[in-house]
């Protein structure tokens, strides 16, 4: 099993290495790929050193699967070149997510849509992934009419530069000496600005939640609005999700349904102050759901709090799970 990891030196790339190793994914030949400035440098995988190679060299090796985490423009240029030589690409960027000919996959929800002919498969946005895992069974049973989403997103979702800004501010480095990933300080602050602003006054991150959710659930009639906020947290993303259903529900039934959902851990014991928090979701692969309660201001409506490690389930773990599904079904290797 030849496995190429494109963007091997980035934050997500580092976690992808960890997840491949932890899950004992059968890698017979590991092919780390990164930008030209990193070619020739060494990284470690499963206790061995590997030299980073160029995109062209990686394509020529014809890997069985290539897991991409290198940005949209890189994926648009290179994913088709890998696909042309028979490689199956699992792409973590936004490049292919809304392409009508590409599958957008969260394995616990819709892995069954995958076929051996799918050579470029899109990994959804981190915020979408963690939300869709608990939403899917609820939609199947009660049918979602409307979602109102507020996110509280980790700085790690922006990348290494944001982490460096946070650490510098935390250490008290003077503001004029801090390399800024954001327009403003992030320490002791919240930024209602994730990704770029679009013509409709929403950010790209907010519209990802709208469009990707509809595509994965296969329902363009769900009304969705979102506000995405960057917060000074490294453990993971948190989301407040208000759901209006077509059909009424029982709270205990909701909790039981979520407790029996693959990939979900319900933490909802307010008497003992137990609820999901990013500090405790860090380095875990599950989605944690709590504060599950009826919205008394609107019929058939529910509030819940959803937390997950955005670098793992929100990116690396989901991508590796897709590759594992393809392997298990004999679609690669």
Polypeptide structure, described:
The strands form three sheets. The protein has a six-stranded parallel sheet with strand order 2-1-5-6-8-7, sandwiched between helices. The chain is globular, with a radius of gyration of 20 Å. The chain is an alpha/beta fold and 333 residues long. It has helices spanning 11-22, 55-60, 72-84, 107-110, 126-142, 160-170, 204-217, 251-259, 278-281, 312-328; strands at 2-6, 29-33, 42-45, 48-51, 65-68, 88-91, 103-104, 120-122, 144-153, 223-230, 237-245, 264-266, 287-294, 301-308. The chain has two domains: 2-124 and 315-328, NAD(P)-binding Rossmann-like Domain (Rossmann fold, 3-Layer(aba) Sandwich); 128-310, 2-Layer Sandwich (Dihydrodipicolinate Reductase, domain 2), CATH 3.30.360. Strand 7 (103-104), helix 4 (107-110) and strand 8 form a beta-alpha-beta unit.
Write the layout of secondary structure elements.
Elements: E1 2-6, H1 11-22, E2 29-33, E3 42-45, E4 48-51, H2 55-60, E5 65-68, H3 72-84, E6 88-91, E7 103-104, H4 107-110, E8 120-122, H5 126-142, E9 144-153, H6 160-170, H7 204-217, E10 223-230, E11 237-245, H8 251-259, E12 264-266, H9 278-281, E13 287-294, E14 301-308, H10 312-328
């Amino acid at each position: 099993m030849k496995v190429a990891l494109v963007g091997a030196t980035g934050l997500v790339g580092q976690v992808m290495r960890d997840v491949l190793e932890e899950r004992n994914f059968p890698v017979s030949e590991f092919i780390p790929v990164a930008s030209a400035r990193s070619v020739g440098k060494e990284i470690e995988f499963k206790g061995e050193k590997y030299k980073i190679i160029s995109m062209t060299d990686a394509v020529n090796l014809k890997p069985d699967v290539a897991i991409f985490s290198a940005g949209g423009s890189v994926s648009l240029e290179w994913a088709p070149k890998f696909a042309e030589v028979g490689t199956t690409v699992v792409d973590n960027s936004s490049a292919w997510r809304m392409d009508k000919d590409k599958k957008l996959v969260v394995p616990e929800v819709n892995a069954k849509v995958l076929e051996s002919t799918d050579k470029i498969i899109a990994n959804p946005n981190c915020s979408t992934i963690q939300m869709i895992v608990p939403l899917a069974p609820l939609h199947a049973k009660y049918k979602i009419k409307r979602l109102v989403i507020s996110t509280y997103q980790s700085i790690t979702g922006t990348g290494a530069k944001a982490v460096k800004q946070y650490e510098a501010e935390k250490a008290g480095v003077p503001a004029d000496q801090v390399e800024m990933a954001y327009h403003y300080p992030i320490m002791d602050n919240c930024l209602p600005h994730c990704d770029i602003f679009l013509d409709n006054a929403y950010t790209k991150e907010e519209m990802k939640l709208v469009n990707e959710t509809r595509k994965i659930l296969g329902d363009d009639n769900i009304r969705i609005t979102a506000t995405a906020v960057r917060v000074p947290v490294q453990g993971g993303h948190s989301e407040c999700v208000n759901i209006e259903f077509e059909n009424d529900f029982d709270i205990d039934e909701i909790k039981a349904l979520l407790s029996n959902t693959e990939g979900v851990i319900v933490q909802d014991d307010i008497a003992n102050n137990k609820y999901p928090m990013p500090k405790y979701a860090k380095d875990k692969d599950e989605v944690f759901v709590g504060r599950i309660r009826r919205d008394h201001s609107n019929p058939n409506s529910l509030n819940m709090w959803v937390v997950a490690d955005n670098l793992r389930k929100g990116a690396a773990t989901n991508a590796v799970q897709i590759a594992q599904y393809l392997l298990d079904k004999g679609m690669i290797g």
